[in-house]
Amino acid sequence: MCGFFGWLKAGGDLSGPELDQAVRAAQSLAHRGPDGRGEWRAPGLFMGHRRLKIIDLSDAAAQPFVSADGRHVLSYNGEIYNYIELRSELERQGVGFRTSSDTEVFLAAFSNWGPAAFSRFDGMFAAAIHDTTTGVHWLTRDPLGQKPLYYCVGDQGLVYASELRALAGLEGFGWRLDRRALLRFLTTGYYAWEDTPIKGLRKLLPGCWLEFSGRGARIERYFDSRPGQEVLDIGPQEAVAETERLVVRSCELSLRSDVPCGVFLSGGVDSSLIASICRELDPDLAAFSVAMEEPDYDESAKARAVAGQLGLRRHRVYSLGADTVRECFEDYLSFLDEPQADPGYVNALFLSRACRDEITVALAGDGGDEMFGGYLPFKGLAFEPWLRPLPGPVLALMRAVCGRLLPGSDTYLGLQFKALSYLQGFPAPLAARFPLWLAAMVPEGLKRLCPWADEGFLERSGAAGTVFDFAARLMDEMAGASLQQKLLYFYQKTFLPEFVCMHTDRASMRHGLEARSPYLSVPLVRFANRLPDKIRISRGRLKWPLKALLARRGFSKDISAQAKRGFTFPVARWLKTVLRPYAEEAFRDEALAGLVDRGELERIWSAHCAGRRNAYRIILNLISVRAFRRRYPSID
Question: Which domain holds residue 266?
Answer without folding.
Answer: 236-373+488-560
